[in-house]
Design a protein that fits this description.
The protein has about 130 residues and is an all-alpha fold. The protein has helices spanning about 5-25, 35-45, 50-55, 60-75, 80-85, 90-100, 115-120.
């Protein structure tokens, strides 16, 4: 029964990694659910080489490497990179991973058909303003 929490926490972090891999078009997103391959996938998503994977396997250094990798992932998902630093905080890391994974890219603004909100931001020169 005590191992059920380990499985739940592992799956809770694997799902956001899978989603981020899918959104960043990283190959083999299924690796998110296999323990050591998950670390390799995180390096792939962050676009880092295999030396970073070695850093994840070294005690104490792995904490810094994990945060730096997630900072790069957050940056690639157009999120503030300080969110990645929060990945070293237990329990908060799961929420941060889900927040980063929930990101949806913005639609590019249509410059030929601006919205009404954009039109109201236009500032007229002083001579053209109404008194």
């Amino acid at each position: 029964m005590e191992y059920i929490w380990l499985v739940i926490s592992y799956v809770a972090i694997a799902i956001p990694i899978y989603v981020v891999a899918t959104k960043t078009s990283t190959d083999n997103e299924w690796m998110a659910f296999i323990p050591l391959l998950q670390l390799y996938l995180v390096c792939e998503i962050a676009d880092k080489n295999l030396l970073w994977l070695v850093g994840l396997l070294l005690p104490v250094i792995n904490i810094l490497v994990w945060a730096l990798l997630w900072m790069e992932i957050a940056r690639s998902m157009d999120k503030p990179d300080w969110l990645g630093a929060l990945m070293i905080v237990p329990l908060l890391d799961i929420g941060v991973a889900w927040y980063i994974a929930a990101y949806e890219p913005k639609e590019p603004e249509d410059l030929l058909n601006p919205s009404r909100k954009q039109l109201t931001r236009i500032q007229l020169p002083g001579a053209l303003r109404r008194p």
